[in-house]
Amino acid sequence: MLPPLLPITSRLTSFVHGRGKQFCSVASTEQNDTSLVDVEARVSVVVNDLCMRGITQYRKAQVTCLYQLLLDLGIKAETIEAQLLEMPHLLSHSHKAWTNTCESMVESGIPSLRILQSIALHPELLKVKVSLLQDKLLLYRQMNIGKLNGLSLVTKYPVLLLLDPSHLKRRLLSLDAMFPPASLKNLVHNNPNVLLDSWEDIMAKIMYIHKEMGLEQPQIAAARCLKLPLLHIKTRHLFLFRAGLYKTPNLYKDKQSHRRNPSLNDILDTSDKRFTNRCSVMEYS
């Protein structure tokens, strides 16, 4: 459901064309010499492009204000134009809303490109009262559980800014009680949906993998398994188990016994075609 983070890049191709994403795809600041940018000429190109598509409600002055604001943040002109052309509805929000939101996020140390990506993913951030946004950012910055910091999570997963910070704190404390610090960090990295999904659903998956598949926290945290439906987890496991291709490990007697089976990622986070091909190889090996 949630895409993995991509390597640092100034391109937004996968980001601006994404649909239904909750989390940003990339994070970086961009070096940009604003003195070399002819803002008026480039804004004219953007406005003309929008008009050719029948989008005529945004005045040139309106586009210029937002373009200059994002340029002053250090975002490349090409990135700004790609984002505005892909999501012109971002122009419907007031310049004041953009300024207040961007300033609050910059003051909290969030990189400029990440700010644009966060707002593009969640334009409703522009409707959050500035004092409330600042309070949330402060609370997240002060939140440290294990090896995780609340603000670093918000930077990667901006949807958290639309929630009460107490939600994240409760969720991290619940996970921290089950996973050691290193495993918890891996768990959130591989399965960021654990921050948002129903706790009952998450626990059902964890307990199935633990009790029925015989695996412990390190193996669960290292896999992208909790983002998958419980039915999918059960189906893949039972297929291998009944075919004699999965032996339930006893980690109390042999800590390496799980290595005799395919990894959780190989079992769960693969296409049906790859899964069946792998099963064929295992059966005749």
UniProtKB/TrEMBL annotation:
Phylogenetic lineage: Eukaryota, Metazoa, Ecdysozoa, Arthropoda, Crustacea
This protein is called what?
A: Uncharacterized protein
The protein's matches in InterPro entries, at most eight in alphabetical order, are given as:
MTERF_sf
Q: Which organism is it from?
A: Scylla paramamosain (Mud crab)
